[in-house]
Amino acid sequence: MAKFIITPKPTLGGEIAVLGAKNAAIKMIAASILIDGKTSLENVPDILDIQKIINILEKMGGKFRRLGHELEVDITTLRPDDPDPTLVAQIRASIVLVGPMLARFGRVRIPHPGGCTIGSRPIDLHLKAFQTLGVEVKVNGPNYEFFYHDENASSVVSVDFEKISVTATENVLLFASGLQREIIINNAAIEPEVLDLIEFLKKAGVDISQDGRQIRIIGRKNLKTVRHRVVPDRIEAGTLAIMAAATKSSLKILNCNPDHLKSLLKKFQEMGIKFATGENFLYINDSPGGSRIKAASISTTEYPGFPTDLQPPMGVLFTQAAGKSMIEENIFEHRLEYLKELQKMGAKIKILTAKKAEITGPTVLSGAKIESLDLRAGATLLIAALVANTKTEINHAENIDRGYEKIETRLEKIGAKIQRVR
Ligand code: EPZ
Questions:
Q1: Which pLDDT score, from 0 to 100, does residue 71 have?
Q2: Closest Cα to residue 278, out of 264, 258, 263, 261?
Q3: Which residues does 28 contact at the CB level (< 8 Å), separation at least 6?
Q4: CB neighbours of 229 closer than 8 A, spacing ≥ 6?
Q5: DSSP 35-89
Q6: How far is Cα 277 from Cα 257, in angstroms, rounded to an integer?
Q7: Between 20 and 30 A from 54 (CA), which of 38, 123, 343, 365?
Q8: Each residue of 327-347: pLDDT tens digit?
Q9: Within a 10 A sphere around the Cβ of 140, how many other Cβ atoms?
C-alpha cells in the first residue's frame, strides 16, 4: 500500500485544471454497452475507478483505447458473460452495468457491488425498480441474477422511487434507453452527472425529456455512436476550492462549472471566504492576511442541496473557522468516520450522533499518521495535511487515486510538498 507524506507549506497558489466527472464517465462507459461501434468520450480522468470498469468490460470482449483524456469505447464484440465478480465487488458503480446488460442480453448476474466505509450501500431501490419494469430478480447467496424478456413493450410503466438514488435513477435510465417502450421515472436524482448522462443518451438517439424529478424515456434498439465531452467534476472542483480556503491560498480552478457548486459557494459567502467565478473557472482569493473565516453549518441533501461528497472536506475547513460549526450528514450512515482522523491531528470535534458533529475552530492541526478510509475522506485528509503545521503521513494512497488523477503531481504544481512512498 502506498502512502503520501505531506510537508506543510504556508500557502498554495497558481492555477489547477479540473478533469471530467468520475461519476458521469463511468455511467457513459456503461451506456456504451447499448451502442455497437466506436463511442468517444472526452475529458475522462485517468483514475482507478474508471480503469476498473474498463477492466470488467474488456474481460467480456469490449475494446478500449485511451488517448490522454480521450477514451474510445467499442462494445461491438461484447459477450454476454457475467461481469467478473471480484472486480464488480470492488466498485460500487458497477451496479449500473445491470440496466444496459439487461437491455442488450436479457440477463446478467452480479454479486452485491460492495459497501464501503461510508455506508452499507443497499441496492433495494434498484431491485424494486427493475421488478416494476418486468425484470425477474433471483437472489442466490451473494449473487443477484436478473432476467428480462421484452414481451410487454407496449405498456407505459412508471418507476416511483420512494427515496432519491443517483445510481438507481441511472440504472433505470440505461435499461429504458435500450428498449422500445416508454418508461417514466418519478422522484429521480437530478445531479449534474445524471443530466450529463441524459445528454449522452439523447445524442445516441434516445427520446428523453426531464421535468424536475420526472424523466420520460422512449428507448430504442441500435443506439447511435456518440462523441461526448464529460461534464467537469464538481466534487473535485469543490474539494480544491475548500483546500484553497482552508490553506488561505489564492487559487484559480479551471475547466469547472461554478453553476454546479451553488450550495458550496453560498456557504463560502456565509463564511466570509472571498471568491470570483467565470463561465468555466472559480477563483478563491483567501490570502493569508485575509479576514478570518466564520463558522457555519451544513446539512447534506440530494442535489441541488449541499453534496454529501463535499461534507468531509468541509469538516477540515470548519477546523479553521472561528467559532462552532455543525455538520449533519443525511445521505450516508457512516460518513463522519474521517473526523476521528482529524481528532488525531488536534481538531476540536464533538461527535453528537452518527449523523451530527460540532467542530470548534480555529485550531492548529499537527501532522499525524492517518488512514484515508475512502476516496473522498482521503482527499479530505490531504487538505488537513496541507493545513497542519508538521509533517503528515496518509496511508492507502490508492484510495485517493480512485477518484483523483495524479493528485500529487497536480498539487505540487500549485506549491504543495507531497511525496508518494510505495
Ligand atoms: C452516488 O452513489 C455516487 N456514486 C456517490 O459518490 C454519491 O455520494 C451519491 O451518489 C450521492 O450523491 C456514484 O455515482 C458511483 P445513492 P449511490 O443511491 O448512487 C440509499 C463517490 O465517492 N440507497 O444516491 O450509491 C443510500 O444508502 C461516491 O464518488 C438505498 O437505500 O448513492 C443512500 O443513503 C460516494 N437503496 C441514499 O440512498 C438503494 O438501492 C443515496 O444513495 C440505493 C441507495
A1: 98
A2: 258
A3: 39, 41, 196, 197, 200, 228, 230
A4: 20, 41, 42, 43
A5: --SEEEEES----HHHHHHHHHHHTTT-EEEEETTEEEEE-TT---PPP-HHHHH
A6: 9
A7: 123
A8: 999 999 999 999 999 999 999
A9: 8
308 lines ligand 1 (CB under 6 A): yes
Q: Which of 54, 116, 273, 339 is catalytic?
A: 116
- pLDDT confidence of residue 113: 81
Dihedral angle, C-alpha 299, 303, 309, 310, nearest 10 ° = -60
Q: Is the CB of 123 under 6 A from ligand 1?
A: yes
Q: Would you say 323 and 361 are in contact if contact means Cβ atoms under 8 Å apart? A: yes
Tell me the C-alpha distance between 330 and 335, whole Å: 9
Is residue 116 flagged as an active site residue? yes
Establish whether residue 304 lines the binding site of ligand 1, counting it when its CB lies within 6 angstroms of any ligand atom. no
Distance in Å, CA 307 to ligand 1 centroid: 11
Does 30 contact ligand 1 (Cβ within 6 A)? no
User: In 3D, which of 204, 184, 200 has the Cα closest to residue 192?
Assistant: 200
Task: Dihedral sign for Cα 147, 152, 153, 158, please.
Answer: negative
Amino acid sitting at position 414: I
Establish whether residue 252 lines the binding site of ligand 1, counting it when its CB lies within 6 angstroms of any ligand atom.
no
Question: Cα dihedral angle (294, 300, 303, 305), rounded to 10 degrees?
Answer: -40
CA of 327 to the centre of ligand 1 (A): 19
Give the integer Cα–Cα distance in Å for 365 and 387.
7
CA 142/CA 420 separation, integer angstroms: 36
Q: What is the DSSP string of 218-280?
A: E--SSPPP-EEEPPB-HHHHHHHHHHHHHTT-EEEEES--GGGGHHHHHHHHHHT--EEE-SS
Strand partners, 210: 215
pLDDT at 75: 94
What's the confidence (pLDDT) of residue 142?
Answer: 87
Q: How far is the CA of 146 from the centre of ligand 1 (A)?
A: 21
Please state, in angstroms and as integers, the Cα–Cα distance from residue 274 to each residue in 45, 128, 237, 283, following that order: 29, 46, 16, 9
Residue 416 Cα to ligand 1 middle (Å): 31
Cα gap 50→44, rounded to integer Å: 8
Task: Show the low-confidence residues of the chain (pLDDT under 50).
Answer: none
Name the residue of 50, 120, 165, 195 to mutate for ligand 1: max ligand atoms within 8 A of Cβ: 165
